[in-house]
Design a protein that fits this description.
Number of strands: 8
Helix content: 40-55%
Strand content: 15-25%
Order of helices and strands: EHEHHEHEHEHEHHEHEHH
Number of helices: 11
Strand order of the largest sheet: 1-2-3-4-5-6-7-8
Bound molecules: SN-glycerol-3-phosphate
Oligomer: single chain
Length: about 220
């Protein structure tokens, strides 16, 4: 399973990259705004800066919601760097645009996926990745992990090539369950990734080893 970091914060991207386990980055307009990135040039420069830090797929999201607009924005984003993946919302014109990008060799990430039906459409259009939002499904009172398992089952049965990029990860357990369910990728903020390191028995065991090392 590949690990992407879900942030536009350059220092967190660097910290995750230095761990040596990072395979890519996902961003969205909310994450870019959170970092104070404002204006078209600043946005494009920020994507360039991320591409310089991480050697792996970097999702950059379009703002347009009409077919022509999505194509125009996506072409500009894809031209920035060979690792850019054009992130397109799960809407009718988005599906049409994903098909065009696929036919023209541009990688895509279909975002805002909340149902298996949407996942099937994204796979049919040839999306490189699709992003089901686990945490937001949980917030709505359903079960985000159930959605990941359902999509993974359908894709295995049908032989779809689109990779499940589990998003809206809120804790380390989400990451573990995604690995179990067969998601090809998770994208997570830094905290849940670092959460995988933690176990109280590791801390207790290490403290004892260090204490005993003084007696060696
Ligand atoms: O990148 C999309 C997704 O990961 C957003 O997560 O926490 O805002 O639901 P969240």
């Amino acid at each position: 399973m590949k690990f992407f970091i879900d942030t536009a914060n350059l220092s967190q991207i660097k910290e995750a990259n230095e761990l040596g386990i990072l395979d890519g980055v996902t961003t969205n307009p909310s994450l870019m705004a959170k970092e104070g990135i404002k204006g078209n040039d600043a946005v494009l420069n920020h994507y360039r800066a991320i591409c310089e830090i991480v050697e792996g797929d970097i999702s950059a999201e379009v703002i347009a919601t009409d077919y022509e607009g999505i194509l125009a924005e996506g072409k500009v984003l894809a031209a920035l760097h060979h690792n850019i993946v054009v992130k397109v919302p799960m809407i009718k014109d988005g599906i049409k645009a994903i098909k065009w990008f696929t036919d023209n060799g541009i990688k895509t990430n279909c975002t805002l996926v909340f149902s298996a039906g949407q996942a099937i459409l994204a796979a049919k259009a040839g999306a490189t990745y699709l992003s089901p939002f686990i945490g937001r499904v949980d917030d709505s009172g359903w079960d985000g992990m159930l959605l990941i398992r359902q999509i993974a089952n359908i894709f295995a049965v049908q032989g779809y090539k689109t990779q499940i990029l589990a998003a809206s990860i809120r804790n380390a357990n989400h990451i573990i369950q995604c690995a179990e369910a067969g998601a090809q990728v998770i994208t997570s903020p830094l905290e849940p990734i670092l959460g995988l390191l933690k176990h109280p028995l590791t801390d207790i065991g290490l403290a004892k080893f260090l204490e005993d090392a003084k007696k060696m």
